[in-house]
Please model this.
Amino acid sequence: MTTTVQLRRFTHPDLPAIRQTLLDVHADAYADTLNTEFTQRFPWFVDHWGSNPGFTCVIGYDEGEPVGFAYGAPATPGREWWRDAPIQPPADPSTFSVSELMVRPRWRKTGTAKRLHETLLEDRPEALAVLLVNPEHPKVEALYETWGYRRIGNRQPFPDSPNYAIMLRDLRTSG
Model:
């Protein structure tokens, strides 16, 4: 599929206007797993992340139809996800947490995910980006590695969540 996906950036004050779009894209992207309790809590995660004053979201649209999004926020100093990993703390620990990146099935494998991700991170003042990936999806983890991330450990943020791989990227040397 060849598409021209237009990307739009949103911030914390925009959450009420984009919230339903995020929920609708999630419902399509995860239609096969919406019955799990963890997946059903997605609206809570949207509200949690969206309440952060530094919340940033990029949504892709194909002729006005939302096709995917990426969002995150600056990590709280001292509570960065990479702190759970057995690594030497970096000289500059400022971190942007990439919380969600999802693309609706029809637009997968079109380069849309990378465009959403890179647009989310462009011009970030933080030194690092961190994300969590389900290790049951090694192709996704390998994709993130091609985007400059490296696996540094594991983290299970909730008792009913997967034991995610923690992936870290230096924003000042990769891109």
